[in-house]
Amino acid sequence: MKLQVKLALYNTLTKLAIIVFTGLLILFSLENITYNHITARLKDKKDELMKHLSSKEITQILNQQQSFTDYNILKEEYIFLKPILYRSSRQTEESFTTARRTIEQTTDTYLILTYKFNFNNRSYLLEIGDTMDAVIQLKQTIKEFTLLMLFVALSLTLVIDLVFTKYLLTPFYQIIDRKLIRVNDPMNFDYKKVTTTTQDFELLDSSISTLMKKIADLFILEKQFIANVSHELLTPISIISSRLENVLLQEKLTEDSENKIFASLKTLNRLKSIINSLLLISKVENLQFNKNDTIDLKNIIAEVYSELEDRLEDKGIVFSNTMGHAYHFQGNNSLIHTLLFNLINNAIKYNTKGGSIVIADALYSEQYILEISDTGIGMDNEQIELAFNRFEKLNRHEKESYGLGLAIVKSITAFHSIRININSVKDKGTTVKLIFSKESI
């Protein structure tokens, strides 16, 4: 998950917690405030009634009484009075209850003040009720409004946070894009600082530039080392080979000595081939080749076929080139030649006698695919995973193989931004796919 989204979610969740807490506090406070307000109003009505209470008024109320003596037109309030058993020692009693009352066939919930008192040697029960339905409806309305405001607040918060974090992190993504993703060669690194007012991003920018400067210095040293190795190792090997070849010209050598010298020459040639392969991989990975050539895959495959034609005939392998597209791209001609030579050579080396090799291609809107298929010994999944490792041999008993062919292939494909896939079935054959980005036809 991106940092921008994480920051937006964090801000939204924290504000959600604050809003929910505030909303619950309002709802609970509203209920208490409403209850206290209604009880205070009922007490005021009771006090006002008792202040002006007289025998005449009591008689009038009792004469009018049917079920409930007094109520407003909306049936939100009512007053009920009835005589009860007289006790001279009765103290005034006041209590509040919530109960259902039916007024003219309409049943509502009321908060009721119950008051017992003595007046003119008689005891009375007074009830003053105020409906709770209005409060319940008000609470429901406030709940709905609170939920709506919560949703609106969260939506606005999420949008605002996303916009703000995007603005805040823009320098960060510029640093990542310019100084990490687009860097293919440390020698062409862009040291220009990214404009930002955030100290953390300034530190990141300067740290990456410092690190890349160190890498560039090491890169230069590695190039120098490769050049020195190329001279210091290959030159002595060539000298030793020449001397051994001169020794072979002497007539006094025994057969055993000649065999040993031949074996030594073979070992030197093997060592020279390994060094050349390793140097080639290193030079490719260190970007010491240019890509100024226009590559014609059909022509290169034709050249490779001519070079390997004798080997194909020796094993009786049928070579079929079914390419139907003339694909061209910018690259290094010699490296692509080495790439295809190694792949086709492997298809011959690990093929069966009388087998076949098929070269096919396919052109799509955004890519071009070249396939090299053989009917050889194939590979299992473990071998496919290790195929591009250096010194990894498909056949460990193969003396002519150094295990560097596919390592060279991998380096060259990476250098040219070519994707390579291997599909293989043990004892049935292998298909190597080269996937090119479409540039020109």
Structure description:
- Helix 3 runs parallel beside helix 4 and helix 4 packs antiparallel against helix 5.
- By secondary structure, the protein is α+β, with helices and mostly antiparallel strands.
- The two termini are 40 Å apart.
- The protein has three domains: 136 residues, no CATH class; 87 residues; 145 residues, Heat Shock Protein 90 (2-Layer Sandwich), CATH 3.30.565.10.
- It is 55% helix and 20% strand.
- A five-stranded antiparallel beta sheet has the order 1-2-5-4-3.
- It is rod-shaped and about 155 Å long.
- It contains nine helices and twelve strands.
List the helices and strands and how they pair.
Elements: H1 3-51, H2 55-64, E1 70-71, E2 77-84, E3 93-103, E4 106-118, E5 123-131, H3 133-181, H4 199-248, H5 255-285, E6 293-296, H6 297-315, E7 318-321, E8 328-331, H7 333-349, E9 356-363, E10 367-374, H8 381-386, H9 405-415, E11 419-425, E12 429-437
Parallel strand pairs: 7-9
Antiparallel strand pairs: 1-2, 2-5, 3-4, 4-5, 6-8, 9-10, 10-12, 11-12
Helix pairs in contact: 1-3, 3-4, 4-5, 5-9, 6-7, 7-9
